Structure formats: C-alpha cells, structure tokens
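Researcher: Sequence recovery benchmark, item below. Answer with residues only.
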C-alpha cells in the first residue's frame, strides 16, 4: 500500500527518464493530474504575439459601419429610406470626409449601406428613386388665397362706408384677415407647427399700414387725430402695400412648395453633401427672386387699383424679410427668425419713439438720426432700412441652413 501511496503523490518526476521527448518540446504545458498553482489561470503563461488584438476587437475594426449603426441605432430603425439616414448623419456632423473613413465615397453611399443592413421583416426594399409628383390638394391653395381676398373685400367695404359704421367694419375686417392668415399658416407649405414670432409680424404689417403716416405726422408736430382710413387724413393710412402683402400669401405658399419639392428631388440625385448644397443654393435664391417678382407685380396692381403710391421699398423689403423667416421656420430653424423679426420690429418702434422723445426739453438729439434718414429718403426710409438689413441677415442664414440635407429630412408631423 505504501507503494501505491507513493504513486499517488503529484511530485515532480526526477531522473534521466523523467520527461519524454513530447514533454521536452512543450515545457509549459500542464500534465494531467498536476495541480494548477494558486493565483494563476490555465493559459496565463501564454503571451499574445506582439501587435495581435483580441478577436472581438479585430472584428469591430474590420466592420466600422456596424459600430456606426450601433451608435445611431434609433435613426436607422425609424428611417423610411436611406435619405433620412443621410440627413440624420449630416445633422450629427458626419461629412463626406468622415464617410471616407468608413470606406465610402460620400454620406449618401454610407447611408444606403446602413439602411440595407438594418434587420427588417422580409426582404429589404430597394432604395427609392425620385419621388413621384405629389397629388395636388386644393385645400392649402384656397387657404393661401383667402387672406388676400378678405383684405381686398375689407378695403372695398371701408370705402363704401363712412361715419360710425366705418370703425365697426374696420374691426371686423381686421379680425377676419387675421383669422384667414392664421389658417393659411397652419396648413400647407407655410405651416411650421410652432410659434414663429407672430407678435413681431403683426407689428411689422401694422407699421406698413400706419407707421409711415404716423412718422411723417410726428415730424410736423402731429398727429392731430386718429386715422380715418384715408391717405390724406390727419394720420395717413397706406393701404396698397398691405393688400399686396396679403395677396402675396399665395405666391409665398407656391414658392415654399416649389423649394421643398426641388430640394427633395436634388436629395435623391446628389452624390455628396457638397454637391447637394451647391445644387440647392441657386434653387433657394431662385425661389426668393420668384416671390419678389410676384410681390412687385401685386404692388403695381394694387397701387393702380386703389390710386395710391405702391411703396415699393417698404413693401419689397418687408416681403423679403418675411419669406426667408417663414422658410426657416417651416424647416425647423425658428430661433433666428424670431430674433431677427423681433429686432426689426423693435427698431421701427424705437424710431417712432425717438421722434416723440425729441420733443422733450434737452432731448432733441435723440430724434436727430431718424430726422436725417427721413430727410434723405422720406418716412419710408425707416422701415426699408430696418427690414432690408433683417432680410439680408435671414437670407444669408437661410443659404447656410436650408442647403443642408438635414433640413429636408422627412417630417413626422402633417404639413
């Protein structure tokens, strides 16, 4: 038995024949029946060759697109086409140069692979071609025509009435036009779904109606009474620009529609973010010029029909301010629109306030800048300057924001 006990002990073999040829070739291999030293693991003594990474890390390095898909998992799962993924990637700062690191020539090609690799029920559909022309719906067209029609009817009603009935007709007309304008901005291509500075817009349109007359009367010591709806009263009223702007709601809606469709079509045909931006920028400027041309024609028409000056500088600069502000709001960029509209309205209000403040003793210098501007360009120089500067700022901002692919991603809310 003692011999058997001796055989059971896990001692190290000794003697010249203790290790065979195989044991000498694998000196670090643990023999069966031997114990593992405490604090060590099987295979712990094996060192990885220099420069070798674990298999999982190697797989991730070999498939960088998979890591990007994991990072933007929510975007890939809810996307309805590769274009939405491309827009989302661009919004997160992925550029064509970044796509090259993922072995793709541009963001659009990278988005197509990500969309194709998203697991779905059934076969993955092929990337969509250019979207078909949408079915024309007449509701938003009617709503876009409604403010101008009601405004023209209100002017006719005011000219056919006098005495005590005129203020009542004016109040009803203003309420009807405001409600029609609100309905036009809540449906169709001009709908933004959020507050876009409505109070500032009301002030700007109100100034176009009453501001020049008030400023001119204030410079001569007036006004001596309330506005009576005429252009030669104690507080003159300028009706033609307001009617033209109300009628311009329809061209604005059509311009916004054409811009959205053109940008979406270029999104399907462009092969890079730079290519897309370069193709959308002239489209945006062409849309802007088309609207101004339509507004110019409406100003000439309303001025001739009402027998009043068309006030081209004031009305055109105001229209040039309102259109890019609305386009930015429609595509989700509301902060700059509200800021510029508020600053423009505040500038006009300050200009009028300085004229009245200059009547106080020792405060004549406050009115000097506005008086100089009016002496050079007339009362219309104040709104033309304020709206013109605001329009240039918003147009420059729009050429940077609205030429990005992310600005034209499919919207989830109904327009």
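Model:
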């Amino acid at each position: 038995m003692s011999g058997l006990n001796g055989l059971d002990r896990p001692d190290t073999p000794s003697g010249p024949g203790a290790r065979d040829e195989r044991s000498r070739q694998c000196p670090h291999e643990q023999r069966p029946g031997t114990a593992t030293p405490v604090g060590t693991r099987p295979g712990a003594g094996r060192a990885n060759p220099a420069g070798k990474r674990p298999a999982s890390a190697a797989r991730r390095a070999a498939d960088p697109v998979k890591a990007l898909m994991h990072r933007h998992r929510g975007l890939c799962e809810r996307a309805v086409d590769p274009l939405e993924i491309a827009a989302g990637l661009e919004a997160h700062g992925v550029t064509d140069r970044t796509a090259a690191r993922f072995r793709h020539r541009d963001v659009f090609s990278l988005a197509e692979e990500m969309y194709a690799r998203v697991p779905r029920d059934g076969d993955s559909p092929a990337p969509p071609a250019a979207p078909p022309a949408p079915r024309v719906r007449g509701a938003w067209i009617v709503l876009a025509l409604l403010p101008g029609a009601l405004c023209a009817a209100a002017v006719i009603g005011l000219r056919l009435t006098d005495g005590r009935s005129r203020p009542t007709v004016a109040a009803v007309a203003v309420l009807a036009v405001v409600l029609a304008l609100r309905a036009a901005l809540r449906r169709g291509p001009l709908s933004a779904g959020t507050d876009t500075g409505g109070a500032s817009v009301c002030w700007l349109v109100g100034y176009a109606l009453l501001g020049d007359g008030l400023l001119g009367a204030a410079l001569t010591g007036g006004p001596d009474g309330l506005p009576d709806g005429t252009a030669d009263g104690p507080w003159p009223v300028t009706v033609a620009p307001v009617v033209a702007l109300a009628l311009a709601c329809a061209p604005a809606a059509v311009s916004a529609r054409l811009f959205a469709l053109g940008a979406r079509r270029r999104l399907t045909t462009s092969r890079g973010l730079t290519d897309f931006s370069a193709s959308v920028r002239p489209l945006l400027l062409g849309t802007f010029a088309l609207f101004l041309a339509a507004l110019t024609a409406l100003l000439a028409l309303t001025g001739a029909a009402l027998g009043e000056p068309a006030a081209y500088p004031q009305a055109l600069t105001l229209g040039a301010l309102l259109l890019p502000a609305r386009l930015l709001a429609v595509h989700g960029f509301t902060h700059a629109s509200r800021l510029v509209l508020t600053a423009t309205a505040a500038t006009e209000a300050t200009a009028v306030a300085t004229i009245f403040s200059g009547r106080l003793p020792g405060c004549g210098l406050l009115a000097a800048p506005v008086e100089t501007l009016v002496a050079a360009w007339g009362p219309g120089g104040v709104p033309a300057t304020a709206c013109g500067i605001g329009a240039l700022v918003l147009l420059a901002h729009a050429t940077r924001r609205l030429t990005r692919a992310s600005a034209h991603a499919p919207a989830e809310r109904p327009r």
